[in-house]
Amino acid sequence: MPVxxxxxxxxxxxxxxxxxxxxxxxxLAPDAxxxxxxxxxxxxxxxxxxFLADELLxxxxxxxxxxxxxxxxxxxxxxxxxxxxxxxxxxxxxVVRDGIPPxxxxxxxxxxxxxxxxxxxTPFIALARAxxxxxAAQAYARRTWALAAQRAISLAALRPDxxxxxxxxxAKQLDTWVGLFDAAGALTQRxxxxxxxxxxxxQLTDEVGTVLRRGVRAASTLEVAGAxxxxxxxxxxxxxxxxxxxxxxELDLEGRGxxxxxxxxxxxxxxxxxxxxxxxxxxxxxxxxxLLTGDPTLARRVSRELWGPLPPxxxxxxxxxxxxxxxxxxxxxxxxxxxxxxxxxxxxxxGDGLVLVAGADRRDLIERFAALFGASTGVSTPVAYPELPxxxxxxxxxxxxxxxxxxxxxxxxxEHGILSQLDTVEARALAAARLAPLREHDTLHGTHLLVTVxxxxxxxxxxxxxxxxxxxxxxxxRARVAQxxxxxxxxxxxxxxxxxxxxxxxxxSPH
Length: 511
What we know:
It is built from 18 helices and 15 strands. The chain is an alpha/beta fold. A hairpin with a 4-residue loop joins strand 6 and strand 7 (187-191). The two termini are 67 Å apart.
């Protein structure tokens, strides 16, 4: 940053003002003389604090102090000024007193208040004017700096690596660390490169990834490893393209203006890649469709040219449902994994979801994806490429049992048998409608047709075994089964009718 702010030290250094520091500089706080001054004000009130502003230098001639004033009065006066935030006290000598009262010197020393002498020949207004001129010079210098910085950044944007050069120039102009993250939360540019240690960088990357996965535009301050960072997302809500992170959190108006211009240029550069990204997405979707025909020839040839080889067989096929706000970030993350784990993953869009093909030993990539983006995901058993159509059907079946952020494997469903797939809203609704005549009859007449039929089917449709299990006569069981058959309008002597009835009973069973 090119210009320091107006300070008491700067005023004391101006020879034409003839000021003299009365306080012991070594006894003051380290920044006491270098704190910024926004105003210089004069007052001879014993308590001027109600009329003072922050970051102010107070001047007085001492008329408020009687000749017999004691140390307590001086100490209370200086204490009030210190509590109000006054940054220094100037005493005009040879107006009502020849010098600075010793008790005032002692009080300022006790409170750590910088005290200086303003000689008679220096009017108070000269200090106010000098400070105002310094503030104006600083504002002009900052505006000049901002224009020069924006010009340098604009020139950097014209270089071959425009985005990287822009980030590097911003870091140079702000004299701090700047990082550019893509939509997946991966750090793609950083300057200077070796400022942050690995642990801080990893934690910062996690924090930025969390912000980006929300899919909402944000400008915020992060606390990471005891350091502060300013974060600004790039792109529009629901379609974030990345984020710029700047070490430090305090920027003045001009600094914020420079950062805003970089954000606009970076956002534009990233948006220009959207068209290319859409073309790549359409190509991937076409290759997924080709794979699902059972013929990997086309996908294998195109993938090798653009992204690397397809994962070696056997492979897992996963179908994943991602929230629309997360979809762009999810695709960017998958692109990053394809680059970092060459030959381990292929993916593409299918309808409103994503299809992932990974090596059988890289299920971890699919699990990480589901957890990071809250995606409902179903995954097939390991298969060869010609069997991908069957694997797709398996993944769809598993997806129906998945909840956001979880992965369900078809192999786990298969262990529970085909009837376990009846646990769906649709199946339960159909089953309830099919069994309604029996349930209504039991409710109206106090019969036990449902439990009798269930027990009868559980015992392989054997009357004697069901009667023994229920503790009733076999003729009663036979009569109830016949009545149920009439109410349902089916012939329970046939296997298909019994199988359908059993499926309805399974679907409506409590879980």
